[in-house]
Amino acid sequence: MNNNEILLLKLGEVVLKGLNRRAFEDKLMSNVRRRVRACGSFQIYIRQSTIYVEPQNENCDIETAFAACRQVFGIAAIARAVPCDKDVDAIVATAKQYLSEEFAKARTFKVESKRADKLFHLNSIQISQAVGGELAEAFPHVAVDVHKPDLTVYVEIREKHAYVHAPSVPGAGGLPIGMGGTAVSLLSGGLDSPVSSWMIARRGVQLEMVHFVSPPYTSDQALEKVLQLARELTAYTGRTIVHIIPFTEIQEEIRKNCPEEYFTLIMRRFMMRLAAAVAKKAGAGALVTGESLGQVASQTMMALGVTEDVTLMPVLRPLIGMDKVEIIRMAREIGTYDTSILPYEDCCTVFTPRHPCTRPKVEDVREAESVLDIDALVERALAGETWVRVKP
Ligand code: ATP
Ligand code: MG
């Protein structure tokens, strides 16, 4: 619409931070910088809880930069704005042209002004009155309403230019990635684990993914699907690593030697041991899963207790209290739904017991798996690990 357009990113929860607020802001700016780098050369700086993203030349792709910024955690809202000369006529002319569509839809409006340049001859109230008066004349169908207007026109007077803002849209919220440490997320090909990964990343946590494969029971396409999900998540998380761990031997040993009702639980305990080992090596502080209370037999309270019995690491389960419909809605919003519903098998779905135990006791499961050489199985699985780096 206007090749001078800039982006204004409103900080979210970061503003509640006390002494380390500065560190949060710096991290957020560097995350924004990294994400818009591919869209051209931008100047990026922060003033009064707002990050300014300004194109430095005509080659900048502001549309793509806008879309990218909407996926950066730590930003509550995003608006576009255009610069103009610092006088009321220029501001009014700019608002008339830039916001003509918004004015066409609105029935009431107000002007809100901010004067960063204290030498400007009008104060913020005078600016709002002058600009508002002229806009009311220019758009006679729109009345001024300072309490609940359909449209708020923001005007900002800064050193070199005045800016007229378009209405803001919501950002991704949360905290800047990198401020919350690292966690290892167990990523399957299902609907749940991409959403749980996204929710923990939104709390500022850098993720590494772990995925278990059981060839020949699981296919290359099933793995490719998981890598595709990880790639889709990088739009929010930035680059990440997917650790791929062979799980066939463990599953076959369980099937051969353990009671059927405990197959899934013992398998999940191995997943936790392996993920915890990966986490330790990565310097991560927690595991993340897509488990939700009661969703399947292995996700009852007692089953969850049995699963996490093998590690002292915190197991984060952000979906624990969510319904499947809510999870599906989120999967659609974050863009992983279409990939998740592709019909490839997961290692969890091979060798599933006909009658899984839903009220397991930890001692019984420990006893049932004690026939296995657990350490050797874990060691061999870890020795077979490969990894893939995925980038936005
Ligand atoms: P999802 O929809 O994410 O597959 P689910 O409801 O099917 O989850 P399970 O298959 O019991 O539930 O798995 C529970 C959690 O265990 C998953 O959300 C995921 O975090 C982890 N998980 C399951 N299978 C794998 C796998 N093959 N690799 C890595 N993690 C897995
Ligand atoms: Mg699954």
**What is the averaged pLDDT score?**
94
CATH-level-2 architecture of the largest domain? 3-Layer(aba) Sandwich
CATH superfamily of the largest domain: HUPs
The total number of structural domains is: 3
What can be said about the biggest beta sheet? 9 strands, mixed
The span between the termini is: 27 Å
Q: What is the CATH topology classification name of the largest domain?
A: Rossmann fold
CATH class of the largest domain: Alpha Beta
Helix content: 25-40%
Low-confidence stretches: none
Query: What molecules are bound to this protein?
Result: adenosine-5'-triphosphate, magnesium ion
Number of E-state strands: 15
Radius of gyration: 26 Å
Please work out how many helical segments DSSP would assign: 14
The SSE order reads EHEEHEHHEHEEEEEHEHEHHEHEHHHHE
Describe this structure in words.
With 392 residues, the chain is of the alpha/beta class. It folds into three domains: 1-84, Alpha-Beta Plaits (2-Layer Sandwich), CATH 3.30.70.1510; 86-160, VC0802-like (2-Layer Sandwich); 182-390, Rossmann fold. Helices cover 40% and strands 21% of the residues. It has 14 helices and 15 strands. The chain has helices at 21-36, 62-69, 88-98, 100-105, 124-138, 192-202, 220-237, 248-257, 263-282, 301-308, 324-334, 337-340, 362-369, 374-383; strands at 6-11, 42-47, 50-55, 75-84, 108-115, 143-144, 151-157, 162-165, 169-173, 182-186, 206-213, 240-246, 287-288, 315-316, 386-390. The strands form two sheets. Strands 1, 2, 3, 4, 5, 6, 7, 8 and 9 form a nine-stranded mixed β-sheet that branches. Strands 14-13-10-11-12-15 form a six-stranded mixed β-sheet. Helix 6 packs across helix 11 (324-334), helix 8 packs antiparallel against helix 9 and helix 9 (263-282) crosses helix 14 (374-383). The protein is elongated and about 85 Å long. The model has no long low-confidence stretch (mean pLDDT 94). The protein binds adenosine-5'-triphosphate and magnesium ion. Magnesium ion binds next to loops.
